[in-house]
Amino acid sequence: MDDSENKTTNPRIAAGAQTIADIITNRLSRRSFLGGVSAAAATAGLGCATGPRSAPNAAADVTFAEIARGAGGDHHLPDGYAADLLLRWGDAVFPDSPAFDPYNQTAAAQERQFGYNNDFIGYYPLGAAGADSRRGLLCVNHEYTSTRLMFPGLSGGRIPSREECAVEMAAHGGTIVEIERTRNGAWRPVLDSRFNRRITSGGTAMTLTGPAAGSDRLKTRDDPTGRQVIGTMNNCAGGVTPWGTYLMAEENFNGNFLGALADGHPEAENHARYGVPGGWYQWGRYFDRFDVSKTPNEPNRFGWVVEVDILDPTSMPKKRTTMGRFKHEGAESVIAPDGRVVVYMGDDQRFDYVYKFVTARTFDPVDRTANLDLLDEGTLYVARFGEDGGLDWMALNFGEGPLTPQNGFYSQADVLIETRRAADLLGATPMDRPEDVEPDPASGRVYLMLTNNTRRTAEQVDAANPRANNAFGHIIEIVEPDGDFTATRSRWDILVRCGDPADPQTGSMWNPATSENGWFGSPDNCAVDPSGRLWIATDGNEATGANDGLWALATDGDKRGTGRAFFRAPNGAEVCGPRFTPDGKTLFLAVQHPGDGRGTSFEAPSTRWPDFAERMPPRPSVVAIRRQDGADIGV
Ligand code: FEO
Ligand code: CA
Ligand code: CA
Fold it and tell me: Is 165 a pocket residue for ligand 1 (Cβ < 6 Å)?
């Protein structure tokens, strides 16, 4: 989402704690001297850049005819490709879902329909030994609601009604729906599948598990156990685990709270560190749990990673407190060589951190049930990016280093509830808004999207965040030694610095082979396709004068750092997902908040994509992209 209201809450930054500018300058000068992308790779000593995958995954492998930068009300794809609409906001998820009527919305109807602002997309194959590319479960997050685009009559300043707020709560969360590929190659939802499910902010009961569950700081009037929560919200990126569960990351939860804490309330400092209450929405007017003056602990019950067993639609989702509490963006997992599972996560706020979680036990490939609570035990680490290209993963363990009663931590529950403050004390590296973090199991590399940070000053630059006023973001490649994702000492390098390569003022860095359409700004989501190629989706590319989209980005050989434009979103939309089927023939993309923009509303959106009907508002939608000749995407 647009992050303009998402102000820095890191006190280390407010206090000007970063003072290593000199060493950084040295590193940057060395890079400038060497110049070029491959030289930068060499400096960081990316000895295992070729990784276990022997075939290079350079953009030389992608042969589609690049599309042009630009803007407009419709989406664009290369010649020979088709994008089929799969699910739109309001579409049926069940046989009895009410027909979508944007002029008479109810929470009860929205609970049975596809939600708003689709973000993460997961695909879990059904049958065919886990590789089925014809039938699977699609897991889609619904990140937030664009109130003025959803409901009529709000442009004049009318305050949303109680029912409209309840609709918003039903439009958050996630959708699990079985889909199948039809004979002509298009996909369709299977409405009568027993797996179909909506998960929402207002209607889905879930439990808190792990070390923070039951903490006094999670107890409320309605839940004296500190273990039972209604709903999840602000579900941005996420993940699907190898054992068939869906991880939903709770991101900007602070925005849904209103009110003020009583003077001297013990949660005041904690809430301030998370920007609570954000006051972006009106839910707290009508629902006491979203008013911190009435329910001061409710914000501590959000900001977690939620795990959902998608193969058991009656199962209760679990908020896994082991993975910390912050503005979670993404939770992509990978199995390390020793069988432990590693989950990579970003905390999407200016000057916040990158994390990974390593399970204590190993993945059991035979007994699925043995994996269902794997994420309840393990170690959470936060990243410190060294000036020398080294990366230290520092454990967030109660009783170690500064994480003691002397600093207000009395248990691991406190460390997890206040993950950000714990990471502050460990000296983690404040980043330029960490978005998606994607491991490539075949190469041992991990791609980290840093979307932008215009508030970084010249005094605050460091090796991993090398630009002041970073308007366009950058992408970091982490190399886990010998593909060991559990490592606590890794290497890193910058893959590209985004922005216009033709404008030296941007300080961008691309492979010179990148065309005038191949560069972009504000990387947000990414995917590694079945052939190991990296794809980048943007949120905020309009700062470069063109709509958001999806680009292929080469990571190897002499093409490393070359972008190529593949998909252009309609006006106002960011691009999320992306997700490939195992056979590489379908690419699912989530087109989020089409029609958005300054001064837009339900009555006056910047596009009416995808229906283009006069009285129909724009609808966030998932599209399924395929080649019309049936070949693999991208080649
Ligand atoms: Fe919800 Fe960080 O994008
Ligand atoms: Ca986004
Ligand atoms: Ca995002």
Answer: no
Query: How many angstroms does the Cα of residue 365 sit away from the middle of ligand 3?
Result: 31
| Residue closest to 454 by CA, chosen among 389, 511, 506, 518 | 506
Q: According to DSSP H, which parts of 187-281 are helical?
A: 268-273
Q: Is residue 199 part of a domain?
A: yes
The backbone torsions φ and ψ at residue 404, rounded to the nearest 5 degrees and listed phi first, read: -130, 170
The candidate with the shortest Cα–Cα distance to 393, out of 320, 486, 326, is 486
Residue 27, pLDDT > 70, answer: no
Q: Is residue 133, in this structure, part of any structural domain at all?
A: yes
- Spell 267-299 as b/e; 16+ CB within 10 A means b: bbebbebbbbbbbbbbbbbbbebbbbeebbbbb
The reply to whether ligand 1 has any atom less than 6 angstroms from the CB of 435 is yes
Q: Does residue 271 sit in helix, strand or coil?
A: helix
C-alpha closest to that of 89 among 626, 622, 628: 622
pLDDT tens digits, 123-149: 999 976 667 899 999 999 999 999 999
- pLDDT tens digits, one per residue of 235-291: 999 999 999 999 999 999 999 999 999 999 999 999 999 999 999 999 999 999 999
Instruction: Give yes or no for a contact between 446 and 344, defined as CB atoms under 8 angstroms apart.
Output: yes
Quick check: CB of 143 below 6 Å from ligand 1? yes
Longest dimension (CA), the chain: 66
Domain span at residue 59 reads: 11-251+303-627
Q: Say how many domains are in the chain.
A: 1
Residue nearest to atom 3 of ligand 1 (CA): 1
Atom of ligand 1 nearest to the CA of 329: 2
